[in-house]
Backbone:
């Protein structure tokens, strides 16, 4: 039975919880240590401090830290971990997913820059469109994320009216399908 943002019953049976929690806690702790060492090496060897590499490593460090905290907290008391308040629930369960999205967007942007830099070497006329293409590669995942957010918001609203933004993203057949499910 759901109450608020957590669950009354544990998500995983107690006999499975210990083994999985130990494995995940060790894995995320090792990942955290590895990324932390990588960031120290960037500082030690005086690499460019604000680059794709350091931002990517920092996002991964924050993600692994939140996951380590979640699973170590889950290791101590899994019932309390399932009945967190709104902000801790969002921070430990939802925010890491947002960090993964930001990391994927960053990798997508970096890939777009590398591809257009390589292509413009052999076709210089592409150089003038590289900025627009990089903006497109950066905005496309964000628009897709916005669409998913709008669909999620629509799924939890009782009204069948669409905002103009939802109307822009939802074609009529999808709109009819969503309204039939309500």
Residues:
């Amino acid at each position: 039975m759901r109450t608020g943002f957590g669950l009354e019953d544990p998500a995983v049976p107690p006999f499975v919880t210990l083994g999985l929690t130990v494995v995940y806690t060790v894995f995320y702790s090792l990942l955290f240590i590895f990324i932390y060492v990588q960031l120290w090496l960037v500082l030690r060897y005086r690499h460019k401090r604000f680059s794709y590499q350091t931002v990517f490593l920092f996002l991964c460090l924050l993600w692994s830290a939140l996951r380590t905290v979640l699973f170590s907290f889950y290791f101590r008391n899994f019932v309390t971990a399932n009945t967190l308040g709104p902000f801790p629930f969002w921070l430990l369960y939802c925010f890491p997913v947002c960090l993964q999205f930001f990391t994927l967007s960053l990798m997508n942007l970096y890939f777009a820059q590398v591809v257009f830099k390589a292509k413009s070497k052999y076709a210089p006329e592409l150089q003038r469109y590289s900025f627009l293409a990089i903006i497109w590669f950066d905005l496309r995942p964000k628009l897709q994320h916005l669409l998913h957010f709008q669909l999620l918001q629509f799924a939890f609203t009782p009204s069948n009216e669409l905002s103009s933004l939802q109307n822009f993203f939802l074609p009529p057949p999808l709109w009819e399908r969503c309204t039939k499910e309500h």
In short: The chain has a mean pLDDT of 75.
